Amino acid sequence: ETGVTQTPRHLVMGMTNKKSLKCEQHLGHNAMYWYKQSAKKPLELMFVYSLEERVENNSVPSRFSPECPNSSHLFLHLHTLQPEDSALYLCASRIQGSSTEAFFGQGTRLTVV
Amino acid sequence: DAKTTQPPSMDCAEGRAANLPCNHSTISGNEYVYWYRQIHSQGPQYIIHGLKNNETNEMASLIITEDRKSSTLILPHATLRDTAVYYCIVSGLSNDYKLSFGAGTTVTVRA
Question: Which of A13, A66, A87, A104 fits a 20 to 30 Å CA distance from A79?
Fold first, then answer.
């Protein structure tokens, strides 16, 4: 248990569905991240939020829409996904500007059918 | 854009020390060396990090060479539960301590 909670743990959705992934932490962290890990590939950084503002978007398609309503919560809204978007989606958090470690959630295993 | 080089895989015997090498020859003065591991299909788990000095915690020891161009993570008594992918990551203030993951080293602990 890292203190970063992701829900749901597993999600199956059709290509026309709209769903949201949720990440929550009460560690006092103020930077939050979304990563994508496709099968047998390294983690890819998708989005970075710092002090509730999006500071990085690594060429992620618009069908992925992040939202950070406060420093404790991070969402990833999904719509009209493709089968190749099936992956493990990981959330992480840390203290902005500090060298202390980041903590990861257990991830959401997403399958697009 | 990982700035580290790790062997793709290694085996070690249960109960023995596991020494995982990492090269980071282009590390800059304010960059830290971080180690994480990922057990199959779980989120990465923080192990240890350091800047210049060697570090030890309840999980592992981190040995950083004097020129800081390489480091070794030591798991003192490997168990079967230590089987995982281990990532060595260099990061610092210049990139806001973001973690860029490479392929890591797949460590298999054998009984």
Answer: A104
